[in-house]
Amino acid sequence: xxxxxxxxxxxxxxxxxxxxxxxxxxxxxxxxxxxxxxxxxxxxxxxxxxxxxxxxxxxxxxxxxxxxxxxxxxxxxxxxxxxxxxxxxxxxxxxxxxxxxxxxxxxxxxxxxxxxxxxxxxxxxxxxxxxxxxxxxxxxxxxxxxxxxxxxxxxxxxxxxxxxxxxxxxxxxxxxxxxxxxxxxxxxxxxxxxxxxx
Length: 198
Prior knowledge:
mainly beta; seven-stranded mixed beta sheet; 12 strands
């Protein structure tokens, strides 16, 4: 027979989790993340937007930084008829600053679906947000962590694959026919025999 504490742990394991990893270049000398519940999971109702900004009364989570908008961004939980998963959209609430999500810029009040792994940037802040699916429909949890170094760019962005530089000194892009790509990019190094013969 399970006791109450075991039951509670099982229910918490079923919550969708947003793992938010934060970075700012001056985070060690300024208390930018002092108001955030670092290292603990906080539970939130899925029908309320989660707001991040400078204003601790208007926002769910606050940053201690005068350069951050009073309301910087919001995360909205939602579900679709096609999926049981709790999904999220991100919205820029700042009138003065742009917000980028995996290099897609969002203007004031613009929103987009948040991918399962997203690099969110505003000002000098970088946030890697990773969604871990759960079964609960009415709530989710958020866990904040501060990174010592910026999150890796390649985790969230599509980078066209390029083959290595060949002995000819030409770079070949995989999506283009060989002759076309060499003609577009040209050689990457000079052929010395051509210099002497001209």
